């Protein structure tokens, strides 16, 4: 059957594509930029691509008329404090385009909303359900609790907190109960309800077998990792302080931290297990889901990560159009470093930059810059990178975003997502000419007003040492055997 997937570049969508292809479905993916999908997906030659930004109805390509079912896996939670309005607009535009097809079913992955006093985030998810019901196709809603898997936001936040803090003073919301579910089981349920008439116009709660508090989840994580952790609950921490605490300790943005803290007052426990009659399955326990996530991390095979989702606060959907660094109104610092070592070694060093590897020279000052960015309300450097060896356009690397990762021409172009009085690019390229080899490293800055020019002048002395030292280390660094 022909299935439409909106949100194909997202955390869930990326993982659902191979599941649907394996079942023999003809998959049509709605994406904002085909170039990013081609770079990110091993399945780009096996699906049909449509472009469209769901926040701009005029940009959406017409859906094929013979679409039989559609998945709606889109949300705007991480990008803007007005995400509820964005989610409503996105859902309306999607339904208007879908109603022009012969689609029989829309499947939406939402959150468990059984409490009366819902958070803004969960209210928005509930409202999106109402919007999608206005469409001609039958609606199936799967409401999930916390999703655990390598790269999921919940897993990464639990991981950050537990790995970094031997002793935690935490807010009261750590005693809120939830029913975590493995990403593998979420995908299984999404596939099982596809064109299952028993699921038409139905809403199902989905969760794993364990009911746990956030505190229990962190302590269980510590047990699995063989870490000793002590958690002290403080009843007087306000939601704002809690948001800042989450923001500074983890890799999440402040807007996302606010939404998460707001949502953590709501229990997300399965009240009705009717899904078991429609799609019976033995779900993984919380510990089993953790073990599976660790295996993927150790194998460096994380399929998708929430950190790589584009944040509208920093980049526009067409960010890949910026792969050519502007020349007008910019200042730059160039390093052209000759080297005698093997080209492949230097190339691999470039491709491993950031994250655990670091920036090769004065790593402490890069960490300090990330900390100062966090203080200023930016993304900071705690996002790291999804893969230790592979880079794709759109990936996050600390406080940079990958614009271009060209293996053939050995060129890597990064765009700064940190708080700056202007825009910044960092480019690495290996040049081979007349029997000589060079590493070209160019830092480009487009200042915004007087403050931008003062910032560049203040940073210039540091650039002289940092970028030269970094280029030297990249051309010499060898991974120890």
The gist of it:
With 481 residues, this protein is an alpha/beta fold.
Features:
481 residues, 21% strand, alpha/beta
Question: Explain this structure to me?
Answer:
The chain is α/β, with parallel strands linked by helices. The chain has helices at residues 11-22, 34-40, 83-98, 120-133, 153-164, 183-192, 214-224, 239-249, 254-263, 275-278, 286-298, 343-351, 363-375, 449-476; strands at 2-6, 26-31, 48-51, 69-72, 105-111, 138-144, 147-148, 167-170, 177-178, 181-182, 202-206, 212-213, 230-233, 331-338, 396-397, 400-406, 411-416, 422-433, 436-447. The strands form five sheets. A seven-stranded parallel β-sheet has the order 3-2-1-4-5-6-11, with helices on both faces. The longest helix has 28 residues, at 449-476. It is globular. It starts with a strand and ends in a 5-residue tail after the last helix.
Specify the structural class. Answer: alpha/beta
Overall spatial form:
globular
Give the strand line-up of the largest sheet.
3-2-1-4-5-6-11
Radius of gyration over C-alpha positions, nearest whole angstrom: 23 Å
* Contiguous runs where pLDDT drops below 50 for at least 5 residues: 311-315
- Approximate helicity band: 25-40%
Q: Give the overall average pLDDT.
A: 86
N-to-C terminal Cα separation, in Å? 50 Å
Number of H- or I-type helical stretches: 14
Strand content: 15-25%
Instruction: Give a short account of the largest sheet.
Output: 7 strands, parallel
Number of strands: 19
């Amino acid at each position: 059957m022909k299935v439409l997937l909106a949100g194909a570049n997202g955390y869930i969508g990326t993982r659902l594509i191979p599941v649907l292809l394996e079942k023999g479905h003809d998959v049509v993916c709605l994406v904002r930029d085909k170039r990013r999908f081609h770079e990110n997906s091993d399945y780009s030659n096996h699906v049909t691509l449509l472009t469209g930004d769901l926040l701009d109805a005029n940009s959406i390509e017409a859906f094929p008329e013979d679409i039989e079912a559609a998945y709606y896996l889109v949300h705007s939670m991480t990008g803007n404090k007005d995400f509820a309005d964005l989610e409503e607009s996105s859902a309306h535009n999607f339904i208007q385009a879908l109603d022009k097809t012969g689609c029989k079913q829309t499947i939406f992955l939402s959150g468990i909303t059984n409490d009366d006093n819902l958070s803004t985030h969960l209210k928005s998810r509930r409202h999106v359900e109402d919007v999608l019901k206005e469409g001609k196709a039958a609606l199936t809603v799967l409401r999930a609790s916390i999703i655990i898997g390598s790269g999921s936001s919940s897993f990464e936040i639990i991981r950050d907190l537990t790995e970094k803090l031997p002793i935690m003073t935490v807010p009261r919301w750590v005693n809120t109960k939830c029913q975590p579910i493995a990403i593998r089981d979420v995908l299984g349920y999404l596939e099982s309800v596809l064109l299952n008439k028993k699921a038409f116009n139905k809403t199902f709660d989905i969760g794993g077998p364990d009911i746990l508090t956030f505190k229990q989840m962190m302590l269980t994580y510590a047990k699995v990792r063989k870490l000793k952790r002590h958690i002290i609950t403080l009843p007087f921490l306000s939601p704002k302080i809690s948001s800042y605490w989450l923001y500074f300790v983890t890799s999440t943005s402040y807007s996302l931290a606010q939404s998460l803290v707001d949502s953590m007052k709501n229990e997300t426990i399965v009240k009705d297990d009717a899904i078991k009659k429609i799609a019976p399955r033995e779900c993984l326990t919380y510990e089993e889901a953790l073990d599976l996530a660790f295996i993927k991390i150790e194998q460096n095979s994380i399929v998708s990560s929430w950190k790589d989702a584009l944040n509208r606060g920093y980049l526009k959907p067409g960010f890949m159009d910026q792969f050519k660094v502007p020349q007008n109104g910019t200042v730059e610092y160039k390093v052209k470093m000759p080297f005698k070592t093997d080209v492949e070694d230097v190339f691999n060093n470039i491709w491993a930059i950031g994250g655990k590897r670091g920036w090769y020279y004065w790593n402490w000052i890069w960490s300090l810059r990330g900390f100062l960015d966090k203080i200023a309300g930016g993304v900071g450097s705690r996002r790291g990178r999804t893969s230790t060896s592979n880079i794709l356009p759109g990936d996050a690397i600390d406080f940079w975003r990958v614009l271009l990762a060209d293996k053939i021409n050995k060129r890597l172009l990064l765009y700064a997502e940190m708080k700056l009085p202007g825009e910044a690019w960092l480019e690495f390229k290996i040049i081979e000419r007349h029997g000589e080899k060079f590493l070209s490293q160019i830092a480009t800055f487009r200042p915004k007003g007087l403050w931008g020019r003062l910032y560049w002048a203040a940073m210039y002395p540091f650039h002289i040492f940092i970028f030269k030292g970094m280029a030297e280390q990249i051309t010499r660094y060898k991974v120890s055997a």
